[in-house]
Amino acid sequence: MNELLKEAYSTIFEPKLIEEIESVATLMDFNEGDHLIEIGQYIRQMPLLINGVIKILREDRTEGELLLYFLEKGDTCAMTLACCLGDTKSEIRAIAETNGTVAMIPITKMEEWLGKYKSWRNFVFSSYNKRLSEMLSAIDNLAFMKMDERLLNYLREKAKVNRSSVIANTHQEIAYELNTSRVVISRLLKALENEGIIKLNRNTIELLK
Amino acid sequence: MNELLKEAYSTIFEPKLIEEIESVATLMDFNEGDHLIEIGQYIRQMPLLINGVIKILREDRTEGELLLYFLEKGDTCAMTLACCLGDTKSEIRAIAETNGTVAMIPITKMEEWLGKYKSWRNFVFSSYNKRLSEMLSAIDNLAFMKMDERLLNYLREKAKVNRSSVIANTHQEIAYELNTSRVVISRLLKALENEGIIKLNRNTIELLK
DNA sequence: CCTGTGCAGTAACAAAAGTTACATAGGGTA
DNA sequence: TACCCTATGTAACTTTTGTTACTGCACAGG
Questions:
Q1: For residues A43 and A90, is the Cβ–Cβ distance under 8 A?
Q2: Residue B73 CB burial class (10 angstroms; 0-12, 13-18, ≥19)
Q3: CB–CB of B135 and A133 under 8 A?
């Protein structure tokens, strides 16, 4: 675990903090598709993402769903921080986009470190800031863009986190994450294909530019 | 200033911290309609709202605008915190909804206090959490609700922060804050009036239930 | 009292998104 | 090969939202 943790966090934390993390953290592997956090769940540990990608979703009362953002190596979920520190239920759902590993830190430790390590404070604040700014871009997408533009942003984001220009999702899955219907997605994808921006295949979409 | 500050913050900060705040903060009055923060502006001081209401808006590249949330007594703007700590430009605009007063704290102090006072840390984190959860409800509104429901939520929120069931806004102003057009708002307001939920007058809207 | 200006009401139409229904195609399996 | 299941394509229609254009009304200032 030493090496993984160091690789992901040694540039931001001082050695003493890394040592402390090592001594209290428990590693947890996860697989693509795992539901890591459900809405309404209490969070008792703070997760540090060591590798892999996690997607964060918001859910409606009825059954709509919306992708908020992705977490990558070196990230932590500010929503989870919020839950830990505020001792409230999770407002979001977290699902593994790929296989990966997290280190779980007990809440008491993470509070202790806030007073003790400046690098930890900086890390926690920059996580919050990153999340706020991702929420803002989610809001921009929803408030100011039409579905075709949102879809294209989605495809690009997806390609980026998976480091591949081929997106392995069905139209139905995309529709869920953008909170719309399959027919709408098929329609808009076809239009994007006609514009030469993507290439459609069964179960996959290739981003051409 | 002593009394105002104490009234707003004495329940959450210890006396020593209040003293420190008093010694370094500069008070600033503002009037309804004042543009307190513009997008792209750097923030060098952290504002603590002592009384009054401030509205926080997000703006589009082109010229669309969207109300994100209101700040009230005892609040601070986490977006501003983000700017201070991250030393980045403001991503939002802040406009005074009513007259009021803020205490401005130099950034160096607020960082110092993070290590020194637990109550300050708690305050800062709970501000972040509050903001994240307001952003989430903004997202819920945009993603899962139709315009009529968003409008009603808007009216209720507005009535709440102004402590009055009479909302003094033109249809045009409401349209700006919901990022839609005046005609759409007029149409939906009329529908709400027909349902007996509101009463329309020139320049004001009365919320009946 | 007249008039200009800004606000609100409304019709008519356009565009975007959502819905229903059905056709077809790919790929695995009996 | 025949069959089935799932994914995708598409037409036809509805609802919601956005746009343009015009009307009438209230109020302030001359």
A1: yes
A2: middle
A3: no
CATH superfamily of A2-143: Jelly Rolls (2.60.120.10)
Find all residues with CB under 8 Å of B115, minimum gap 6, and list them: A115, A118, A121
Instruction: Give me the helices (H) in chain A, please.
Output: 2-9, 15-24, 78-86, 107-116, 118-144, 147-162, 171-177, 182-194
Cβ distance of A85 and B135 shorter than 8 Å: no
Average pLDDT over chain B, rounded to whole? Answer: 92
Q: Where do you find CATH 2.60.120.10 in chain B?
A: 2-143
Q: Can you tell me the mean pLDDT for A88-101?
A: 94
User: Under CATH, which number does the domain A145-207 receive?
Assistant: 1.10.10.10
Mutate which: A66, A89, A111, A128, vs B, most B CBs within 10 A = A128
| Top-confidence range, B3-7, B98-102, B114-118 | B98-102
Band of pLDDT at residue A2, cut at 50, 70 and 90: low
